[in-house]
Design a protein that fits this description.
This protein is an all-beta fold. It is built from one helix and 200 strands.
Length: 1428
């Protein structure tokens, strides 16, 4: 026997067709009784009535209510729902009669026909008929009717008397109820309790309540009335929980009534449509379910939203909410009368309503506004300004735009006049009344139309967006939402916003006002309908994400909308924003635009971040948008998929269109539309985007994925925001792959036409260690090719690089082909069985930083720079030099390219031409510095006694009366004081060109002059930017994006926001147009120039922001700690240092590390990256590093412990002290004690410490000098040695070994080998011998001799030394002649070397043992510290 655990209840079973209350079931059915005494029918003979009072099972089976099954030992069935029992004594319905011609006692029907006085007019199928009861309702067949307290049966043949439900107040959850004349109040645990007074105030403590019109004083445990009278608090008692079957029966009966009856109750000829339900047994006129007026009176609204009674039938309720007028008259509020054509009469005052105590008026008569509030039957829900609801006391009323009034159906609100108007005239408008709460839960949510996951509209209505980005409900199915965000129109019509109507071909009708949505409490509406803007915010379904000016998001309340360029408005799909007019336009006309709304946070985890479009490894754009480069080299997001990024770096256009920068439009064959403004990117927090997507330019900088590395005029790199792009000859712009740069026109051209060119962007430093320099392909021990390329021999026996892996080197020694193909030298192609392709030109190799490459092949350009052997020196726009990789080449006029000897440059075509044809031109390469002194400096072109221009250029006056340099010899200076033209041509200022009989070419921009290093030129003409950089006189300092300085070549100039350009004083930068504008017009803007270092004492150092005793940040920036405990500089004043130790935010904002933004109440903005701190100039003590309280080491050295535990001085700053107690290594090196060496990749020569310069007259003795005898001394870090003359000389090495020839010396630990002119010992540089050092015969502490070098400011160095600045005011002596002073003002390198990264001297020209007299090797032996 099957055991089933069931909770059974006592069920009365009467097995017969006749139920005990005279109701009947069909033959073969079973009567089942519920606790109220009512019966229902089970469709089984001798069926088992289930305890849920809703279902039953066949005989001999048990109900399993939990499983919804009927079970026994052998079978299992679904249980069956019961059906209502039928009454046997139901009265028959009345047969309606047609309406008749009029008689004097008849009542008039709405169509003009008449019924007898004791009858009621009801609408039948197609006309009005007469029901033989005073207040009747028509049945569904349109032929029968029933009395007002009955409802028609399904077959319309009987009238069913409505039952009187139990008197109770239903609480808000729909499952709890309180007795009549009590109030439902919530409890602390979320349940419901009953306050034992009607219309009570529920107190905030969730325990007590107070009478109506009083206030809870919870602390005082009392209620305060409106008259300030103290009343006692009331305690609540628990509410009764309704059984499930009670609610089920209520819903079932209501649904059945809705399906089977349409009740039209008519009193004295006035028709009123109501929802299904019962009316009071009296002849009262119900106002709502709680209040009624006496028969033959009219319900009128009060100001408070309640009801009063006008003592007239079908009366007119006056607008003062106090009076009323007879039917057919008009309220004259001013005169206090009721007017009609025949005259006027005094108006009537309304009377109080009476409460309906019975529960037999169903709640379903109310007009629900949403799932929490409703309006009374015969009224209309209207929105309030606060977004809630009010009730217009008219059916299907028009809600007016003032949110307070409404008008009858079919009329229009005239807000200005306060009237309701139509073609027949006008009448006063109506004031809306308060809504009431809906206590029942029996209105199913499932019929609602969901707008998004939180709001829905009633069934048969349409969701429409509001101005605030939320939702309203148009009370029409599939409606058209109007552009004013307030109204809507029926399906198939068009909103006429100007006329306030809904138009169609057959005519127009007034539009509809939208209603508020209701909250969706259920979990059955998925959140995935939202339109995600990014991984944190989204817009509602049917709307469009649009960027804000702050880089965040707003929601356009239209699907697939067009986001307007003002960042505030948007337009419907397919229309164009007219920003000037504030309109949305297309071929059919224009309409007002839409305002965007706030986004909402995405709380769910079901919107994957992976939909983002990554721009690089740190930034991404939302799904459906496109990454576009900014002017600064970063990224912005175009809010369109596969968009075209415009050349102004600000806007973008849809896929398949072309940016028209001049017009600010996106053009296509069919027309044009306004362009789109790009939006900020968001930081990628995930580690799943590899950094390897970057395109490396060299081993220190790279460009983002999908961009191309292009050379700059200065020989560095910039990024073209296009893949495999063509780098243009102006060093600023680039073109798409396969197109040609037209420099004169500023276009990218091919056979299909032209488009604007693109501006290149800055590169980024490669911070990662995963881009190894060792990926180079070595050709031999001196030359290598980049990773992924192939080494190929040149005709001269050297090497070139084919830009293909495992390539085939062609026999012409110039070209190469891909792996697996064959070079066809005759055709200039790479052939394979499937076809052929053009061959590739090889590129130059790069030198491997070895010591064994001779320097003698270089081609010197001037006394400071040279080009490699087989190349040609060409001038740059800045007046410097670049290298054309061809011998005896022709330098082109664009200052960027060059052509082979014997050919001509065609600048417009970017070609090299001669009689045999044309070929692409060559791009010039950077020069390298010459360390030699054998080239005279007299080649400069002198402008005046203080200014000069580089050789091969021309001095031209500027507007301020100063000088600029035209980068052409014997050039023509143009009248605009900015440009110049080649010799023999004429400046055409209007066209911006240089004209000659054969044609014209673009003109040239002049460059800054350089100071002549004479003693008679005052430094004070410079404009100091801070204590380290200045701009020339007549120019203006402007900040760069990196926090440094650049020079605008104008006095008191305006620095533009792009950090690159500037405008004259009094003008404004127009960044979009690239113009300088004022009321008189516009002119092209100016590009800023580099600053120069200040070497002089006349600029105060106090502008820097001091971080500590050794570091400072530029003026206007903030010191922030880095992870290593050092300092970085935030390029903002009084900035907030972020917790990631990398970024910072403006003053008064907050770092949002998760979002990578700086937040404030008004919004957020991207954060800033900190820059390295600078060593503090002039802030060091004269020279010393404190080891402890008794020992010091010289400035720029490091204290290291010796083997005896005492202190020694390593002559390197921030050096690494080796464990053997004798040696040290430069910073970032490792000590290898076994080999007495310092390890760090390739072997390089460390740099020198500079020695303190001596003032004149010098002090007789100081702690930094080495005493030779009582009268002579040598500088610190040197050694006294006797010369052959018997006098003292100074060996520029500490604790050195003086050689027997009395001319040379060796480092400590070495021995002199005069035969080989070397110092012998295995050194950490992996050489066993080093050159001897000369002993200097200058006496540092004696008076200045005629051979001393005057440094300036009263300082001097010995003839064998080099003056190097140690600050803006002091000098030091580098112990090597013609040495190179390093930019950190601490170190120097020997002639033939250059200052490298990490404190090293790297070979600039290769080592020549014949130059051994100038050789200075720095060894890492500690100095003994000076004891104080």
């Amino acid at each position: 026997m099957l055991k089933v655990t069931l909770g059974l209840a006592l069920v009365t079973l009467v097995a017969c067709s006749q139920c005990p209350n005279n109701e009947v079931c069909e033959a073969g059915q079973t009567c089942c009784q519920d606790p109220t005494g009512e019966f229902s029918c089970c469709p089984f003979h001798h069926g088992e009535c289930c305890e849920d009072h809703l279902h039953c099972c066949p005989e001999d089976m048990l109900c399993s209510v939990m499983d919804s099954m009927c079970i026994n030992a052998t079978h299992t069935l679904l249980f069956v729902e019961r059906t209502p029992a039928k009454r046997t004594d139901l009265p028959k319905s009345f047969r309606m009669i047609p309406s008749l011609p009029a008689s004097e006692d008849d009542i008039t029907c709405p169509d003009g026909s008449f019924c007898p006085a004791e009858f009621s007019c009801l609408l039948m199928a197609s006309s009005y008929g007469c029901c033989p009861v005073a207040q009747g309702l028509v049945c569904s067949d349109g032929k029968h009717c029933c009395a007002k307290d009955h409802e028609c049966s399904a077959d319309s043949n009987s009238c069913v008397k409505l039952k009187e439900p139990a008197e109770a107040v239903l609480c808000g959850n729909g499952t709890s109820e309180c007795p009549v004349d009590t109030t439902c109040c919530g409890t602390e645990d979320g349940q419901w309790a009953c306050c034992p007074i009607p219309k009570a105030v529920c107190c905030d403590d969730k325990i007590h309540c107070c009478p109506e019109d009083s206030v809870c004083d919870v602390e005082g445990s009392k209620c305060m009335s409106s008259t300030n009278q103290e009343l006692p608090m009331w305690a609540k008692f628990p509410a009764r929980l309704r059984a499930e079957w009670e609610d089920h029966k209520f819903v079932e009966s209501r649904a059945k009534a809705e399906l089977t009856t349409t009740r039209q109750i008519t009193t004295a000829g006035k028709q009123m449509t109501t929802l299904p339900g019962a009316l009071p047994k009296t002849s009262d006129v119900p106002c709502n379910d709680t209040a009624a007026c006496p028969d033959e009176s009219t319900c009128c609204k009060t100001k408070e939203g309640g009801w009063d009674c006008c003592p007239l039938p079908e009366a007119v309720c006056c607008d003062d909410f106090i009076h009323c007028c007879p039917h057919g008259t008009t309220c004259n509020v001013a005169a206090g009368s009721c007017d009609e054509p025949s005259g006027s009469q005094p108006w009537f005052e309304k009377l109080p309503v009476k409460l309906i105590r019975s529960q037999n008026v169903a709640v379903t008569k109310d007009v629900p506004c949403d799932d929490t509030v409703a309006c009374p039957d015969g009224s209309t829900c209207c929105k309030t300004q606060e977004g809630g609801w009010a009730c217009c006391p008219l059916p299907e009323a028009v809600c007016c735009d003032d949110f307070i009034h409404c008008c009858p159906h079919g009329k229009t609100c005239n807000t200005a006049a306060g009237k309701c108007e139509d073609s027949s005239g006008s009448q006063p408008w109506f004031e809306k009344l308060p809504v009431k709460l809906i206590r029942s839960q029996n209105v199913a949510v499932t019929q609602d139309v969901p707008c998004n996951d939180t709001a829905a509209c009633p069934d048969g209505s349409t969701c429409c967006k509001t101005k605030e980005g939320g939702w309203d409900c148009c009370p029409l199915p599939e409606a058209v939402c109007c552009d004013d965000f307030i109204h809507c129109c029926p399906h198939g019509t068009t909103c006429n916003v100007a006329a306030g109507s809904c138009d169609e071909p057959s005519g127009s009708q007034p539009w509809f006002e939208k209603l508020p949505v209701k909250l969706i409490r259920s979990q059955n509406v998925a959140v995935t309908k939202d339109v995600p803007c990014d991984d944190t915010v989204a817009c509602p379904d049917g709307s469009t994400c649009c960027k804000t000016q702050e880089g965040g998001w707003a929601c356009c309340p239209l699907p697939e909308a067009v986001c307007c360029d003002d960042f505030i408005h948007c337009c419907p799909h397919g229309k164009t924003c007219n920003t000037a007019a504030g309109k949305c336009e297309d071929s059919s006309g224009s309409q007002p635009w839409f305002e965007k709304l706030p986004v909402k946070l995405i709380r769910s985890q079901n919107v994957a971040v992976t939909q983002d479009v990554p721009c690089n490894d740190t930034a991404a754009c939302p799904d459906g948008s496109t990454c576009c480069k900014t002017k600064e080299g970063g990224w912005d997001c175009c809010p369109l998929p596969e968009a075209v990024c415009c050349d102004d770096f600000i806007h973008c256009c849809p896929h398949g269109t072309t940016c028209n920068v001049a017009a600010g439009s996106c053009d296509e064959p069919s027309g044009s539309q306004p362009w789109f403004e790009k939006l900020p990117v968001k930081l990628i927090r995930s580690q799943n985007v590899a950094v390897t997507k970057d395109v490396p330019c060299d081993d220190t900088v790279a460009c983002p994925d999908g961009s191309t590395c292009c050379k700059t005029q200065e020989g560095g790199w910039a990024c073209c925001p296009l893949p495999e792009a063509v780098c243009c000859d102006d060093f600023i712009h680039c073109c798409p792959h396969g197109k040609t740069c037209n420099t004169a026109a500023g276009k990218c051209e091919d056979s299909s036409g032209s488009q604007p060119w693109f501006e290149k962007l800055p590169v980024k430093l490669i911070r990662s260690q995963n881009v190894a320099v060792t990926q180079d392909v070595p050709c031999n021990d001196t030359a290598a090719c980049p990773d992924g390329s192939t080494c190929c021999k040149t005709k001269e026996g050297g090497w070139d690089c084919c830009p293909l892996p495992e390539a085939v080197c062609c026999d012409d020694f110039i070209h190469c082909c891909p792996h697996g193909t064959t070079c066809n030298v005759a055709a200039g192609s790479c052939d394979e069985p499937s076809g052929s392709q053009p061959w590739f030109e090889k590129l130059p190799v790069k030198l491997i930083r070895s010591q064994n490459v001779a320097v003698t092949k270089d081609v010197p350009c001037d006394d400071t720079v040279a080009c490699p052997d087989g190349s040609t020196c060409c001038k740059t726009k800045e007046g410097g030099w670049a290298c054309c990789p061809l011998p005896e080449a022709v330098c082109c006029d664009d200052f960027i390219h060059c052509c082979p000897h014997g050919k001509k440059c065609n600048t417009a075509a970017g070609k090299c031409e001669d009689s045999s044809g044309s070929q692409p031109w060559f791009e010039k390469l950077p020069v390298k510095l010459i360390r030699s002194q054998n080239v005279a400096v007299t080649q400069d072109v002198t402008c005046d006694s203080t200014k000069s221009c580089p050789d091969g250029s021309t001095c031209c006056k500027n507007k301020e009366g100063g000088w600029g340099c035209c980068p052409l010899p014997e050039a023509v200076c143009c009248d605009d004081f900015i440009h110049c033209c080649p010799h023999g041509t004429t400046c055409n200022v209007a066209a911006g060109s240089c004209d000659e009989p054969s044609g014209s070419q673009p003109w040239f921009e002049k460059l800054p002059v350089k100071l002549i290093r004479s003693q008679n030129v005052a430094v004070t003409q410079d404009v100091p930017c801070n204590d380290t950089a200045a701009c020339p006189d007549g120019s203006t300092c402007c900040k760069t994006q990196e926090g440094g300085w650049a020079c605008c070549p104008l006095p008191e100039a305006v620095c533009c926001d792009d950090f690159i350009h500037c405008c004259p004083h009094g003008k404004k930068c127009n960044t979009a147009a690239g113009k300088c504008e004022d009321s008189s017009g516009s002119q092209p803007w100016f590009e800023k120039l580099p600053v120069k270092l200040i070497r002089s004492q006349n600029v105060a150092v106090t502008q820097d922001v001091t971080c500590d005793s050794t570091k400072s940040c530029p003026d206007g920036s903030t010191c922030c700690k880095n992870k290593e405990g050092g300092w970085g500089c935030c390029p903002l004043p009084e900035a907030v240092c972020c917790d990631d130790f990398i970024h910072c935010c403006p003053h008064d904002t907050t770092c949002n590390v998760a979002a990578g933004s700086c937040d404030e109440p008004s919004g957020s903005q991207p954060w800033f990256e900190k820059l390295p701190a600078l060593p503090r100039a002039g802030q060091r003590s004269p020279g010393n590093v404190n080891c402890d309280s008794n020992h010091i080491c010289p400035d720029s050295s490091t204290c290291c412990k010796n083997t005896d535990g005492d202190w020694g001085c390593c002559p390197l700053p921030e050096a690494v002290c080796c464990t053997d107690g004798e040696h040290c290594c430069p910073a970032n090196y490792k000590c290898d004690v076994t080999r007495v060496s310092c390890i760090r990749g390739d072997v390089v020569i460390p740099w020198y410490n500079k020695m303190s310069a001596q003032s004149t007259p010098a002090p007789s003795l100081d702690l930094g000098a080495v005493e030779c005898d009582e009268q002579m001394s040598c500088s610190a870090d040197s050694t006294c040695c006797h010369l052959s003359t018997g006098e003292w000389g100074c060996c520029p090495l500490p604790e050195a070994v003086c050689c027997p020839d009395q001319e040379h010396c060796c480092p400590k630990g070495y021995r002199c080998d005069l035969r080989r002119r070397s110092c012998i010992k295995t050194s950490w540089l992996h050489v066993e011998k080093v050159p001897l050092a000369h002993i200097d015969d200058q006496k540092p502490q004696s008076s200045v001799t005629e051979n001393d070098i005057q440094c300036g400011g009263g300082h001097n160095c010995k003839d064998s030394e080099t003056c190097c600045p140690t600050s803006k005011t002091t000098w030091g002596c580098c112990p090597s002649p013609k040495a190179v002073c390093c930019d950190d003002m601490k170190h120097c390198c020997p002639a033939g070397y250059k200052c490298g990264a990490g404190g090293t001297c790297t070979s600039a020209v290769g080592f020549d043992w014949n130059n051994w007299d100038n050789w200075r090797v720095f060894f890492s032996k500690n100095n003994r510290a000076i004891t104080l």
